[in-house]
């Protein structure tokens, strides 16, 4: 009997101690692990050079071409808006002053800043009403080519010109002689709509399951057509950098008829970039590509857009030499090969690989459907069969390694340039084939019909972040989701005072 009692006592003691240890370990895990409260990072500006700007959102007449002037929405009166150019590690402090009737914001596209500075109405701030001022402040820790634009009803406000460029130069300098930024975009003249109303064109929006952009019939570089712009000037021997940014909603293919190298994608370096010989550079909405070439003095040349539209010959720019002796014009080659982002440079150590163990994996089925919610039949673009805000968010823990598979099944045959806020991601594979060349780090990736990409990112920037298609026609009609951090402590609450429209 005594022996039995002793055994029972030992067993009970073991169970109690074991349970206590388990609870202690659980509490410790909760305190130190993935259930602890997380906060938006603070921008540490102490002791750093502060570059201060004022960007005024204003309506202004803007001359796209000699025969077409529009009422544009601008930052500081120009399209694109004033260029912000700073050095790596410096502070960007911008006072946004709004003088137009609609509320506006500024989103710093591609910059992995604090969630507090992301400029998303209804998510990180109220949009700024007419007559009011709002200040953004962040440290430009990541050199590269970026841009800024409104995120309030962006499908309309950006379409009217409310965007600008942000260049963060590396501390060691760019090591180039000429540095030009070229923003491509497309505009509606209104003539297609007038023809349609007169019965001459029929339905300019195409068939029921077709995404049609034919009403965009003016193509520009830096807000101007070819016959309303100036050439890029170089000298023989110059090392020339061209920074291309797509601020529109269409994919543009630019033919560059000289040997060049793609040195950066979305601002991030390409390892040992390979030479491209007179190829087409394809730039999707939201993407940026930096190229470099040597001005060898063999002749002036033109960079132009390829495609079937009549507007193509307006999207071009001349590169001319200062030397009067160089007057010959280089002819375009017949090559129509498009630059392949999977073959931009040589292989190197990368943050992720397909062999990694990921904490979280998500799949995004990108598709289209007919929307009857408003009583009128129209297009809706979906993620996993849902439209925003009904799309379930990605839920991540701080420091999770996240893999996302994006597949474009859109029945309207449209492309989807998917943009992730607040993070860079690595492209792991395309259509099931692992990338073998230079690691490709981006924040915007164009997924064409039938294509599948695997990407990965580190969840190291707590907040509520948008992940959406940067053809804002698609975003404003559903193709938006969010990345939400577990136990994130909100700093903003939408109190309903402003009509916030995040897309």
From TrEMBL:
Its chief place of residence is periplasm
InterPro entries for this protein: Cu-oxidase-like_N (IPR011707), Cu-oxidase_2nd (IPR001117), Cu-oxidase_C (IPR011706), Cu-oxidase_fam (IPR045087), Cu_oxidase_CS (IPR033138), Cu_oxidase_Cu_BS (IPR002355), Cupredoxin (IPR008972), NO2-reductase_Cu (IPR001287)
Cofactor(s) in the UniProt record:
Cu(+); FAD; Cu(2+)
| One Pfam family here | Cu-oxidase
Coiled coil regions in record: none
Q: Where in the cell is it found?
A: Periplasm
What reactions does this protein catalyze?
nitric oxide + Fe(III)-[cytochrome c] + H2O = Fe(II)-[cytochrome c] + nitrite + 2 H(+)
Annotated Plastocyanin-like domain ranges read 58-172, 180-310, 365-485
Q: In which pathway does it act?
A: Nitrogen metabolism; nitrate reduction (denitrification); dinitrogen from nitrate: step 2/4
Q: Which UniProt keywords apply?
A: Copper, FAD, Flavoprotein, Metal-binding, Nitrate assimilation, Oxidoreductase, Periplasm, Repeat
> Recorded E.C. number(s)?
1.7.2.1
Question: Which SUPFAM superfamilies does this chain map to?
Answer: Cupredoxins
Q: What class of enzyme is it?
A: oxidoreductase
What does the annotation say about its assembly with partners? Homotrimer.
| Family per similarity comment | Belongs to the multicopper oxidase family.
**What protein am I looking at?**
Copper-containing nitrite reductase
What's the source species for this entry?
Answer: Virgibacillus halodenitrificans
């Amino acid at each position: 009997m005594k022996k039995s009692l002793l055994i029972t006592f030992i067993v009970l003691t073991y169970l109690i101690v074991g349970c206590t240890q388990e609870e202690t370990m659980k509490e410790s895990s909760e305190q130190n692990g993935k259930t602890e409260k997380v906060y938006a990072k603070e921008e540490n500006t102490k002791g750093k050079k502060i570059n201060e700007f004022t960007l005024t959102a204003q309506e202004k007449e803007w001359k796209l071409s000699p025969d077409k002037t529009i009422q544009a929405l601008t930052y500081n009166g120009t399209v694109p808006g004033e260029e912000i150019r700073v050095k790596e590690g410096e502070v960007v402090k911008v006072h946004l002053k709004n003088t137009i009737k609609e509320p506006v914001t500024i989103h710093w596209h591609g910059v992995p800043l604090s969630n507090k500075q992301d400029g998303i109405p209804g998510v990180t701030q109220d949009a700024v009403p007419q007559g009011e001022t709002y200040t953004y402040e962040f440290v430009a820790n990541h050199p590269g080519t970026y841009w800024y634009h409104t995120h309030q009803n962006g499908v309309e406000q950006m379409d009217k010109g409310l965007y600008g460029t942000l260049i963060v130069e590396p501390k060691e300098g760019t090591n180039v002689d000429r540095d030009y930024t070229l923003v491509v975009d497309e505009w509606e003249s209104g003539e297609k709509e007038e023809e349609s109303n007169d019965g001459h064109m029929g339905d300019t929006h195409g068939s029921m399951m077709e995404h049609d952009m034919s009403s965009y019939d003016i193509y520009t570089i830096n807000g101007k057509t070819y016959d309303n712009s100036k050439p890029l000037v170089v000298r023989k021997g110059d090392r020339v950098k061209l920074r291309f940014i797509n601020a529109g909603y269409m994919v543009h293919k630019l033919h560059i008829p000289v040997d060049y190298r793609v040195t950066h994608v979305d601002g991030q370096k390409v390892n040992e970039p390979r030479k491209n010989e007179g190829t087409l550079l394809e730039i999707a909405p939201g993407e940026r590509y930096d190229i470099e070439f040597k001005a060898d003095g063999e002749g002036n040349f033109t960079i132009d857009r390829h495609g079937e539209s009549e507007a193509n010959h307006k999207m071009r720019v001349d590169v001319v030499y200062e030397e009067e002796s160089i007057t010959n014009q280089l002819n375009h080659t017949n090559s129509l090969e498009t630059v392949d982002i999977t073959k931009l440079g040589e292989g190197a150590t990368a943050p992720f690989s397909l062999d990694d163990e990921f904490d979280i994996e998500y799949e995004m089925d990108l598709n289209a459907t007919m929307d009857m919610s408003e009583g009128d039949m129209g297009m809706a673009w979906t993620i996993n069969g849902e439209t925003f805000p009904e799309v379930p968010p990605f839920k991540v823990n701080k420091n999770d390694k996240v893999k996302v598979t994006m597949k474009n099944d859109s029945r309207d045959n449209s492309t989807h340039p998917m943009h992730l806020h607040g993070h860079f991601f690595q492209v792991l594979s395309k259509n099931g084939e692992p990338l073998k060349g230079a690691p490709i780090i981006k924040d915007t990736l164009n997924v064409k019909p039938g294509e599948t990409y695997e990407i990965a990112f580190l969840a190291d920037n707590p907040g509520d972040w948008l992940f959406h298609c940067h053809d804002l026609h698609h975003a404003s009609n559903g193709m938006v989701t969010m990345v939400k951090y577990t136990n994130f402590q909100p700093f903003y609450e939408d109190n309903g005072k402003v009509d916030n429209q995040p897309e």
